[in-house]
Every structure is written in C-alpha cells, then in structure tokens.
C-alpha cells in the first residue's frame, strides 16, 4: 500500500471515529432500531437461514438487538472472534450470549469456537465498516480480518457492510487487498452496490 493511500485511510478513519463519538444516545437508539428493521428485511429478501453478523461496539450502528431477534427466529448466526494470526474464529450466537472484551477491546462472544472455515456455510455476511463508497468498496478499521475472510472464500455469499447514513461516500481510499461488498445497510436504507459474489 502506498503511503498516500495509507495516510488517506488513516485521516478518514479518524474523522469518522470523531463523528461517531458525537452521536447522542437517542441517535444511537434510533440507529439500532433502524439497522434491525433493515437487516430483518434483508434476511427475508435473501431467504437467509444462516448468516454471520458482529456484536456492535457502543459507537457502531447497533446490531445486538438484531442478533438476539434473529436467534429467536431460528436463524443460525455466527459471530466473529479475532485470532492473533489474522484469521477469524466463529461462535454460534445463543439467546443467553456471554460477551467479553476481545483481543482489540471489541465485544466478542464467549463460548465454543468453530474454526475459520465455518463461515463458508452461511447465506449472508454482515460485517462492520468505517465507510462504504457507492461502488461497493469498503473502508474497514485497518486490521484486515474481514478482507482476508472475504478474499479466502471459494463461494462468497452476499456481503453487506453496516454503517451510519453519513458514511456512504462517493469514494473511499483503497488498495489491492481491500475487498468490495455487495451492499450496505444503514439505519434508513439497504443499498445494493456491487454484483453478488460467486
């Protein structure tokens, strides 16, 4: 990655982090409700019975209520658990989910881990992002876990990134290792941006 791209990514991430910190509790609550409604509709549209999702931090658009509701609906939800080798393990979400701080201070499930290839069996990937552009390019938070996961899948299902409405941008800085997403879910809309992967 060139220094210019790395610098542009760093600057944009810092700006987005700062914007997220300024959201009020009411805005966060409304965003979580909207994300839940959008993800419910997406799951129904795609007919997904097994999917991956993530446990949101306090500054991310909330996904936790959706995960709990999806489990109640009988959807198998895999949650990511970071590993020191740059790969993700997965844990199946349950209604009485125990959550602990993971390797990078992120919320992660506590329980039985299934290996990195478990995600090959899902119908839908729902992943975090800092921003997504209108061509489907995703800007992550810089650790590369989801880019590696998506890039290593033989038959990747649709991949949707979750961001706030203001984080759907005209363009984000990217390099050859960055993976595009099929679409983006915000609190008010779901946008299909790139062809579904095969």
Question: Could you explain the architecture of this structure?
Answer:
There is one protein chain. This protein has 198 residues and is α/β, with parallel strands linked by helices. It has a single domain, classed as Rossmann fold, CATH 3.40.50.10420. The protein has four helices and twelve strands, in the order ααβαβββββββαββββ. It has a seven-stranded mixed β-sheet. It is globular, with a radius of gyration of 16 Å.
Structure in a nutshell:
By secondary structure, this protein is an alpha/beta fold. It is 29% helix and 23% strand. The protein has one domain: NagB/RpiA/CoA transferase-like (Rossmann fold, 3-Layer(aba) Sandwich).
Percent range for β-strand residues:
15-25%
Principal-axes geometry comes out as: globular
Proper CATH architecture:
3-Layer(aba) Sandwich
Fraction of helical residues: 25-40%
Query: Total helix count?
Result: 4
Structural class comes to: alpha/beta
How would you name the CATH homologous superfamily? NagB/RpiA/CoA transferase-like
Q: Record the strand order, biggest sheet.
A: 3-2-1-6-9-11-12
Uncertain runs are none
Mean pLDDT across residues: 93
Keywords: ATP-binding, Ligase, Magnesium, Metal-binding, Nucleotide-binding
Pfam family, one: 5-FTHF_cyc-lig
Protein name: 5-formyltetrahydrofolate cyclo-ligase
GO molecular function: 5-formyltetrahydrofolate cyclo-ligase activity
Question: Which key features would you list for this structure?
Answer:
seven-stranded mixed beta sheet, Rossmann fold, 198 residues, 12 strands, alpha/beta
């Amino acid at each position: 990655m060139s220094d210019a791209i790395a610098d542009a990514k760093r600057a944009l991430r810092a700006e987005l982090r700062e914007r997220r910190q300024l959201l009020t509790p009411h805005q966060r609550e409304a965003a979580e409700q909207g994300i839940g409604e959008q993800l419910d509709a997406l799951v129904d549209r795609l007919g997904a019975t097994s999917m991956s999702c993530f446990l949101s931090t306090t500054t991310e658009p909330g996904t936790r209520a959706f995960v709990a509701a999806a489990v109640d609906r009988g959807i198998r939800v895999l949650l990511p658990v970071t590993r020191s080798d740059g790969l993700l393990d997965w844990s199946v979400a349950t209604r009485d989910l125990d959550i602990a701080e993971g390797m990078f201070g992120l919320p992660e499930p506590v329980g039985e881990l299934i290996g990195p290839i478990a995600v090959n069996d899902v119908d839908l990937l729902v992943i975090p992002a800092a921003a997504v552009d209108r061509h489907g390019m995703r800007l992550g938070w810089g650790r590369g876990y989801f880019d590696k996961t998506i890039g290593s899948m033989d038959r990747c299902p649709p991949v949707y990134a979750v961001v706030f409405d203001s984080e759907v941008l005209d363009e984000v800085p990217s390099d050859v290792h960055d993976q595009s997403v099929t679409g983006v879910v915000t609190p008010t809309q779901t946008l299909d941006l790139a062809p579904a992967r095969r």
